[in-house]
Amino acid sequence: MKNALRIAALTGSVAAMAAITGPATANHAWSTYHWNTGATKTVTVDIMDNVDSTWDAYLDRAIADWNQSPHINLTKKAGTSDPKRCPIITGQIDVCNASYGQNGWLGLASIALSGGHISGGTSKMNDTYFNSSAYNNYADRQLVMCQEVGHDFGLGHQNEDFSTDLTDSCMEYTSDSTNNTRPDFHDYDLLAQIYNHTHTSDGGGGGKPCRGRKCGGGGKGRVLGYSGTTPNEWGRAVGYDKNGRANVFARTQGEYTILTHVTWVPGHAPGHDHHDH
Fold first, then answer.
1. 89: pLDDT confidence band, cut at 50, 70 and 90?
2. In the chain, where do the E strands start and end?
3. Which end of the chain has the lower number of beta carbons within 10 A, N or C?
């Protein structure tokens, strides 16, 4: 396949081995951003299904794979958000798909931060590209779904060079996505590094650690912000990929910082792709 991305072909035995061996050398955190898990050391949130039937199986697969980590406990709920807007809502992750336009990106992950804690997140799949022959295949769809949800926990990319294939993880850019549709043991190791500690203070935008409907599950939580679909809506560039393209953006909305992580179409040159912009 000559398509863009890759995720991790990973079995339950590998996930189990990662859980047993514990943190190794994984170092691909997005930054220091993480959910406030209190004493549980587990991200226990609702993941809201705002996708259509074409994407349901991909979302189910991603949830099952990420839930193999002892630090992730996602429960899928029916979403009530408009997929075109896909707002960030406190205490949950909303997953959406729509034809967002020929704006150069395959997927977007956005999080709302308060005090360094993630208060809510979204993952968007751009059907403008996924309905085209180049990307309308299992591997590319599953890679991007897995990757965008992974960003919502605070994970970054293991590799950003499309000409290489260094891992079996969905948190990689690659020219052949065949074997990169799931997390790998480095992803699970990093989740252990990020979340294997106890929070003793308030954080994450509102008191107690988020657990399901108590923090806005069911689409009834407080709207924290919107990521939009273009760089002008994402704010200033704060991160760049290996090709020098801006792929992380930040803007302030009320008490929150909205961060957006972009998965660009390979070869696309966005307007914010130079460090002097």
1. very high
2. 5-6, 34-35, 43-50, 72-78, 88-89, 92-98, 105-114, 117-126, 172-173, 223-225, 236-240, 246-253, 256-264
3. C
Instruction: For residue 66, give the H/E element and its range.
Output: helix 53-66
Helix (H, G, I), strand (E, B) or coil at 81: coil
Give ∠ CA 266-268-273 in degrees, rounded to 5.
Answer: 115
> Is the model's pLDDT at 26 over the cut of 60?
no
> Distance between the two ends of the chain, CA-based, in angstroms?
34
d(Cα 149, Cα 262) in Å, to the nearest integer?
Answer: 12
CA-nearest of 185, 107, 215 to 151 is: 107
pTM: 0.81
| Own/partner pairs, 240-243, CB within 8 angstroms, 24+ separation | 240/273, 240/275, 241/157, 241/160, 241/173, 242/160, 242/161, 243/160, 243/273
CA distances from 76 to 44, 63, 237, 270 (A): 11, 8, 32, 34
Angstrom distance (rounded) from CA 10 to CA 184: 6
Cα dihedral 263/229/88/92 (nearest 10): -40
**Contacts with 13 (C-beta within 8 Å, 6 or more apart), sequence order:** none
Rounded to whole angstroms, the Cα distance separating 274 from 277 reads: 6
| pLDDT above 90: residue 131 | yes
Transcribe 151-174 into DSSP letters.
HTTTB--SB--TT----S-SSEE-
Confidence of residue 159 (pLDDT cuts 50, 70, 90): low
Q: Tell me the two tokens of residue 37.
A: 């898990």
| Residue 42 near residue 73 (C-beta atoms within 8 A) | yes
